[in-house]
Amino acid sequence: MFSTQFVLSFALLLSLPLLFLFAPRILPPKDAQITLPDELDDLALFRRATLASLHSPSTGTIRLGITNPKPKIAFLFLTNSDLSFAPLWERFFNHSHNLYNIYIHADPSAKLNPPGGVFANRFIAGKKTERASPTLISAARRLLATALLDDPLNSYFALVSQHCIPLHSFNYVYRTLFGSRFSFKFSHHFKSFIEILSDEPTLQDRYTARGENVMLPEVPFDRFRVGSQFFILSRKHALVVIKDRRLWRKFRLPCLNTDSCYPEEHYFPTLLSMEDPNGCTHYTLTRVNWTDSTGGHPHTYRPDEVSPELIHTLRESNSSSSYLFARKFSPDCLKPLMEIADTVIFRD
């Protein structure tokens, strides 16, 4: 009896180092999980948005007591800190004649100073977000669903962060996205501006971030894509995103290798590449400088870098359209940006 207890105690003591070694590989990161109540809340929101969209302009006619209603751009701000550039965006939206809506998802654990003006009362019911976790996908989907449900005239959905700035006037952005196609009967032809890449050097590491073969069978490696976190989706593709359940079951799984885990940069490009690759441009309209990135973060512009020359440079693109937005700017860039807002940024 004594020897049996001794053997069991010794085996338990021997297993402790192994438990500490392999537990991170077995157990999901504690803070990266999406709770069941949050998931059920989101599913209910997605169902309501899907049902409401059955009678949206993209499916036929609309009766709002408006003659030839014009489509709107829904600006989706995803943040976990103050919207430092709210004054610049406020000037951007000036005189836009009700052609936009604003929705803000903020991490409820972050202490924000709520902006006023056009941003007042534009916060949606937010949930906790965390880098290198699927919570950022959930937040973007929540924004899309809320915007779809809120206004049937929302036809493009631009996801931006608190570090993003506009590079052109609102009128320029609107003309770029819609041109002269104001009739909703053509809205299903609108393309989404989302980066979709299949030849990144880190693609294999990103694919196996949750473990070997975990993404199968729904997402084979040759269908896996990566791209920018920030995009402009058409209404058609926003609905594709909130209706998805199949791929979400894979991408919501926590990562074991957090160094290669950027779920929001994987899920949207992969889903839309699978569902409608020809309906996407495969490039983004948000400029990001990765030349001296650190820790997965792009270059952050400081006040002494802000100039008319910088704005002109950030607009330059190899695609058929100029970049419309740019990131990442430190909050203290607001003053020099406001000084050139009217003479440079919004002067097209």
UniProtKB/TrEMBL annotation:
Signal peptide: 1-32
Domain of life: Eukaryota
Localization, UniProt: Membrane
Any single Pfam family the record assigns to this protein: Branch
Topology versus the membrane: Single-pass type II membrane protein
InterPro entries on file: BC10-like, Glyco_trans_14
Annotated GO MF terms: glycosyltransferase activity
Keywords: Glycoprotein, Glycosyltransferase, Membrane, Signal, Transferase
Gene Ontology CC terms: membrane
Full protein name: Uncharacterized protein
